[in-house]
Amino acid sequence: ANLKDEARHGFPYFRENSNAVEYGLPFSTTSFAIALLLVFRTNESYRRWWDARRNLGRLCTAMRNIVRQGIAWFPPEQEALLQALQRWAIVLPHMMLFHVCEGHDMDSVLKSLLLPNELDWVKEQERPTFGVTACMTAIVQAACITNEQQQSMDLEIRGGLSEFGASDDILRQPLPVAYTRHTSRFLMIWLICLPVAIWQVYEWATPVISGAVAFFLLGIEHIGIMIEEPFSILPIDKIAGRLRADIEEMMENNQKCEGQISPP
Amino acid sequence: ANLKDEARHGFPYFRENSNAVEYGLPFSTTSFAIALLLVFRTNESYRRWWDARRNLGRLCTAMRNIVRQGIAWFPPEQEALLQALQRWAIVLPHMMLFHVCEGHDMDSVLKSLLLPNELDWVKEQERPTFGVTACMTAIVQAACITNEQQQSMDLEIRGGLSEFGASDDILRQPLPVAYTRHTSRFLMIWLICLPVAIWQVYEWATPVISGAVAFFLLGIEHIGIMIEEPFSILPIDKIAGRLRADIEEMMENNQKCEGQISPP
Amino acid sequence: ANLKDEARHGFPYFRENSNAVEYGLPFSTTSFAIALLLVFRTNESYRRWWDARRNLGRLCTAMRNIVRQGIAWFPPEQEALLQALQRWAIVLPHMMLFHVCEGHDMDSVLKSLLLPNELDWVKEQERPTFGVTACMTAIVQAACITNEQQQSMDLEIRGGLSEFGASDDILRQPLPVAYTRHTSRFLMIWLICLPVAIWQVYEWATPVISGAVAFFLLGIEHIGIMIEEPFSILPIDKIAGRLRADIEEMMENNQKCEGQISPP
Amino acid sequence: ANLKDEARHGFPYFRENSNAVEYGLPFSTTSFAIALLLVFRTNESYRRWWDARRNLGRLCTAMRNIVRQGIAWFPPEQEALLQALQRWAIVLPHMMLFHVCEGHDMDSVLKSLLLPNELDWVKEQERPTFGVTACMTAIVQAACITNEQQQSMDLEIRGGLSEFGASDDILRQPLPVAYTRHTSRFLMIWLICLPVAIWQVYEWATPVISGAVAFFLLGIEHIGIMIEEPFSILPIDKIAGRLRADIEEMMENNQKCEGQISPP
Amino acid sequence: ANLKDEARHGFPYFRENSNAVEYGLPFSTTSFAIALLLVFRTNESYRRWWDARRNLGRLCTAMRNIVRQGIAWFPPEQEALLQALQRWAIVLPHMMLFHVCEGHDMDSVLKSLLLPNELDWVKEQERPTFGVTACMTAIVQAACITNEQQQSMDLEIRGGLSEFGASDDILRQPLPVAYTRHTSRFLMIWLICLPVAIWQVYEWATPVISGAVAFFLLGIEHIGIMIEEPFSILPIDKIAGRLRADIEEMMENNQKCEGQISPP
C-alpha cells in the first residue's frame, strides 16, 4: 500500500504517513517573509509614484502662480515680457517630459509654443530646463516691479527647479536593487516549491491552484515594478496640456479682471 | 463508504482521507496576499481622503487669513476694496465645490455672494478659480498697503491656488488602476473558492459562513473604493458655509476691534 | 458513540470526526481582516491624536515667539501695547479650549487674564478666536516697528490661525463612519462565533478563554475610539497654563536681558 | 489508557483525543492582536525617538546658521556682539539638555561657555531657554545690519524656540497610557498561558521554549518602552559638544575667509 | 515500533504520536515577532536611505539655484565673484563626500575645481563645509545686489547647511542598537531551531529547506544592515559630478540667455 501511495503521489522520498499540513509548514512560516518583501516593495513603489505625481502638480502650481503674478504686477508697457514669461511657463513642464522620456519629439511640441529664435536656442542646449529657468529669471529681473514682487516670483522659479530636482532624484535613483532582486528570487523559488506541498491534497487540481496563486502574487510584483518607474506611466503630456489651457485662459481674462476692480 | 462520503461531500475528485485543513492550505498561504492588497488600498484611499480634507481646511485658513490682513491693513477709504476681497474670499472654496462636483448649480449659490456684474463675469469663464484669484491679486495690488504687506497677502492667494492644485491632482489621478483591478479580481476568486475548502466541516452552514466572510471582506473593499474619490463624500458645502459665517463675523467685528486697541 | 459525542459537544450538526482546527479555518482566514481593520483604526486614531497635540504645541510656540519679538522690538513708550499683546497671546490657546470643550466656563478663566472691557468684548462674540487674532493684528499694526518686523509678527498670528484651523478640521471631521461601523460589527460577530470553534477543545474553559480574547480585542477598539476624538483627552488647560507661566516669565526678564547686551 | 494519558499531561480536564494544535487555536487567533499592539508601540516609540533626534539636529543647524550670518553681516566694530551671539548659540542646546535631564549640573558646563555675569543671570531664571533666546533677539536687534538680515537671523532664533517646543511636546506627552498598559497586560497573560498549549508536545522542553518566546517578546516591549522617552537615551551632551567645536572653528576661520574673497 | 521511530527521527525525547504541526506551534506563534522586527528594520533602514538621498538632491537643488540667481543678479563687472560662487557651489556636495567617506582623496578631486590658494585654504580646515558656506556668504555679501536678493541667496546657503546637518544626523545616529541586536539574536535562534520542527516531515531534505529559509531571511536582514548606513552605498560622486556638469552648462548659457530677453 505504501509503495502504491508513493508511486501515486510522486514524492516517494517523504515519510508516507505525513499529511499535507506537515509539508506546508515551511510555506506558512516563510509566507510572512514574502508578504514582508511584497508589502515593502508595493508601498515604496506607490510612494515614489505619488511623489512623482505631486512633484508634477506642484510644478504646474508654481507656473500658474508666476503667470498670475506677472499678469497683476507687470506694467502694461511690458506686455512683451509677460508674453515671454507665459511662453516659458508653459514650456517648463514639457521640459520635464523631454527629460524623463528621452525619445519624445521636442520639435513638434515646442513649435506651437515658442518663437522660432527661442526654439533654436532651446534646441542647442543639452539641459534645456536650466535654460528655461534662466530665461524666466532674466524676465523677472527685467520687469519693472518692486524688489519684494521680484523675490515672490523668483520663489516660484525656485519651486520649478526644486520640483524638477526631486523628479530627477526619483528618475535616477531606483529602489535599492538588492531588495528588488531578493524579492524576485524568493518569490520564484517559493512558487516553484508550492506544488510539492499541495500535491497530496489536490492531485490533478495542483497545477490550476498553483497557477492561480502564482498569477496573483506575480501580478502584485509586476505592478510594483511597473509603478516603481512612475514617469513611464504618468500622463505628463496631458498634465502639461492642461497647464497650457489654464495659462492661456488666465492670459485671456487679463483685461476683464481689471474691469472688475476699478468700478465698484 | 468512500463512495458515500464522496457523494455526500460533493467534491469526489479529492483524496478521501484528507481533512479540511489540508484543503485550506492554499487559502491560508494566500490570505496574506489579500490582506496586503486590502491594507494597501485602504491606507492609500484613506490618505487621499484626509489629504483632500486638509487641502480644503488649509484653503479656508488662507481665506480667513487674507480677510484678517485686509481688515487690519486696508485704509478706511478703501472699504469697497475690502468688501470685494471678502466676497471673493468666500467664493473661492465654492469654486472648489463647482470644480469637483460638476452638476452643482453655480447660480443659486453665488447669487447671494457676489454683485451681479461679478456673477456675470464669473459665469462666462471656463476655469473661474483662476479668475477669482486674479481678482484677489488685483485687489491686493490696488490697495494702499506696504510692499511687505502686499507680499504677505499674495502668499495667501498663492496658498489658495496651491491647495486647489493639490485637490485637482487628487481628483484627476486615481490610484493606479492595475492595483484596484488586481485586488477586486483576486478577492472575487478567493471568495468563490472558499466554500470548497470549508464544505467538509460546516456542510449546510457553508453558505452562511462564506456569505459572512464575503460580506465583511467586500465591505472593506467597498469602503476603500468609496473613500478613494474623497470629493464625492466630503461635505464641501458645509465647509464653505462655515467659512462664510467666519468671514462675515470677522467683518462685523471690524470696527469694535479698533476700539480695543486705542484706549488702553 | 457518535450520538453521545454530538450531544456532548452541543453542535451535533457538524461532521462527527472533524477536529477543532477544522472549525477554526474561517477564524484563522478572517483574523487578518480583523487585524487589518483594528490596525487601520488604531493607527489613524493615534495619528489624529498626535496631530492635535502637535497643533497645540505649535500654537504655543507661535505665541511664545510673538511675545519674544514684541519684547525686543516694541519701543519702550509702547509698553501698553506690549502688555495687550501678551494678554491676547495667553488667551488664544484658551480659545482653543473653549472651542473644543463647549461646556467650559469661559468667564472664570478669562477674568484673571484680560481687562474688564476686553473680557466683555470677547464674551459677546460667537467666534472669539477671530476676534483675538484681529486684536493681535491691530496691535502689531499700531506698533512702531519696521515693515519687516511687522510681517514676521504677522506670520506668527497666521501660525496661530492656521493651527486653530487644523485643530478644527480634526474636531469636526471624524474618521469615515463606514470604517468605524464596519470594524465594530465585524469584531462583534467574530467574537460571538468564537466559542463555537473552541468548544470541542476547551469545553468548560470556553467562556473564560472567549472572554479573555473579547476583553483584549474590544479593549483595543475602545482605546481607538477614545483617542479618535483627541481634544477630549488632551490636557489643553495644562498646556495653556504652562504657556501662561512661560510668557509671564518672559515679560519679567524683559529689562534684565537689555542689561546683558549693552555693557559687554 | 485515557486516565494514564491525562495524568501524564497534567491537564486532565480537556478532551483526551484533542491534539496540541487544537489547544493552540486561541493562541494563533490572538497572536495577530499581540503583533498589532507591539508593532504599534514599536513604531510610535521609534518615531518619537527619531523626531527628538531631528529636533536636536535642526536646533544645531539653526545655531550654526545664525553664527554664519553674524560672522558675515555684523560690522567689524561690533565684534563684542558677535562674541556674545556665539556664546549664546553654543549655550542654547545645553539648555535643552538641562531641560530634559533635570539632574544635570548646569554650573560646571556653563562656566566655560559664558561670562560670569551672564552665568549669574541665566542661573536665576526658572526657564532659561527663553532668557537665552531673548538675549539673542536683543543682540540681533542691536547689531547694525539691514532689516532683511535682521529678519533672516530672527528666523533662526524662531527655529531654535520652535525645535525646543517640539522637544518639550515629546518630553511631556507620553504615548496614550491606555495603549501601553493594555499591551503589557495582554502580553503577560498570553505568555503565562503559552505553556499550557505546548505542554503536550514538548513536555520537559516546555519551560525552555516558553522562556525563549517570553524573552524575545518582552525584549521587544522593553526596547519600545526604553525608546519611548528618547531624551534619556539620546547623546545630547555629545551633540552639544560637537556644535561647540563647529561654532568655534567657524569663529576662528572668520578673518581668513575674508581674504579668500577680496583678492581674486 | 516506537523505539525504531524514535531512533529514526533523532528526537526520541518527544511524544512519539505527535506530528510535525505540533512541533511547529512555537514557530508559527513567534514568526509574527520575527516579521515584526524584520519589517521594522527594513522600513526604517529604507527610510534613512531615501532621506539621505533626498538630502543630497536638495543640496544640489540649492546649489543650482544659487548659481541661477547669481547669473541673473550679479552685475557684469562682478564676474569674478560669480566665478567664485560657482566654484564653491560645485565644491559643497564634494565636501559632503569627504565628510561621509573619510578615506577619500580630497586633493585630486578639488585640484580641478578650485584655485590653488582656495585649495590650500580648504585643506587646512578641519570642517571645510563651514568654510565653504562662509565663503559663499561673504561672496553674496560682497555682491552689488538688493537686500531682498541677498536674503534669497542666503536662504540657499542656509539650505545647503541644513541638508548637510540632516545628513550628518543620519550618519552619526544609527538605529537604536538594541533593536538591531535583538533582531539578529532572535533570527539566529529561530533559524537554528527550525530543523528540529521540520525533521520529521522532510527527513533528508531538512538541511536543504532550512538552508533556503535561512538564506532568504538572513538576506533580508543583510540588506537592512547594508542600507542602514546609506552614505556607503549612495553614488555621491556621480551626483556631485552631475551637479558640476549642470552648473557649468548654466554658466556657459549665461550670455545667450540675455539675448533671448532683450530683442522681443
Give a verbal description of the structure:
The structure is a homopentamer of 264-residue chains. Chain A is mainly α. Chain A has one domain. In chain A, 81% of the residues lie in helices and 0% in strands. In chain A, α2 runs antiparallel to α3, α2 runs antiparallel to α8 and α3 packs antiparallel against α10. Chain A is elongated, with a radius of gyration of 29 Å. Chains in contact: A-B, A-E, B-C, C-D, D-E. At the D-E interface, α2, α7, α8, α9 and α10 of D face α2, α3, α5, α6 and α7 of E.
Strand and helix layout:
5 copies of one chain form a homopentamer.
Chain A: H1 2-9, H2 20-73, H3 79-100, H4 106-111, H5 116-123, H6 128-142, H7 147-172, H8 177-202, H9 206-228, H10 236-252, H11 254-261
Distance between the termini of chain A: 101 Å
Sketch the topology of chain A as an H/E string, one letter per element: HHHHHHHHHHH
What is the CA-atom radius of gyration of chain A, in angstroms?
A: 29 Å
Structural class estimated from helices and strands of chain A: mainly alpha
Mean pLDDT of chain A: 82
Largest interface: A-B, 70 and 63 residues
Proportion of strand residues of chain A: under 5%
Q: Can you count the helices of chain A?
A: 11
Q: Write down how many β-strands of chain A occur, each being a DSSP E stretch of 2 or more residues.
A: 0
Instruction: Count up the domains of chain A.
Output: 1
Biggest β-sheet of chain A: count, sense, barrel? none
Q: What oligomeric arrangement do these chains adopt?
A: homopentamer
